[in-house]
Amino acid sequence: MSMDDETDSRYTTGNIAKLTGVSVRTVQYYDAKGLLIPNEISDGGRRLYGTAEVERMRVILFLKGLGFKLEQIRSILSDERPERVLVDLLDQQTASLQSGIAEQKQRLDDCLQLRKALTVSASDFVSPTLTDMATVMNTTTTHSLHTTYLVMLAIGLPATLLQIVCLVIGVMTDVWWPLPVAVLLAIALAVAATKYYRSRVQYLCPACHETFQPGMREFVFAAHTPKTRKLTCPHCGHRGHCMELSI
């Protein structure tokens, strides 16, 4: 097709839809919004467009694909220097998308955390209700549990290393008195770590859906899984595996 042919080309709504890969209704929508204006209207009432309108439609679809709203697209297309407007809007759109990515990532983390919290192996654990799930999402965060685990590791690891060092010293030098001292220190640290851990968690009763903290004795000796502990609820008296939540 020659340049003159392109200049004289006339396209119907259906032609533009086919050339740009959208539905006729989409073309009609942008026409109705004033973003796509026909060159002429035939005697039969058909709306006819030129080559420039085909390219304009492609630009509209491209900008729409970037997430721009109709008014933003209108501002770009109507400005004498569309590149300048586009740069400003791209900066705004980039900031908005980055914020959206952060929000989506947080939602993903919440979903993964909830899924992990609901994965239990205890056969007598009662399936949680939506209220329980909301409680989990509002009280259990990856960050808070991660911090608790790091503190526990910081308490337990030095005690373990100290016992290993004292054992090695005993084997190599036949001096054994540091080992019982290290064991006593490890016991003291274990008690401190247990008290700290208990102070940082609470449990969700699957029967009455109330949260509570068990006594130290029950906490220490209760059967447990990585995410639950078999406890007696002080609110309703139910005994079973209760979901562990961070405070």
Automatic annotation (TrEMBL):
Q: This chain belongs to which protein, by name?
A: MerR family transcriptional regulator
Q: SMART domains given for it?
A: HTH_MERR
Q: Show the stretches that span the lipid bilayer.
A: 149-170, 176-194
Please give one Gene Ontology molecular function term for this protein: DNA binding
Q: Which UniProt keywords apply?
A: DNA-binding, Membrane, Transmembrane, Transmembrane helix
Give a Pfam family name.
MerR_1
Record-annotated HTH merR-type domain positions: 10-79
Q: Name the domain of life.
A: Bacteria
Q: Does the keyword Membrane apply?
A: yes
Q: Which residues form the signal peptide?
A: none
Give the matching InterPro entries. DNA-bd_dom_put_sf (IPR009061), MerR-type_HTH_dom (IPR000551), MerR_fam (IPR047057)
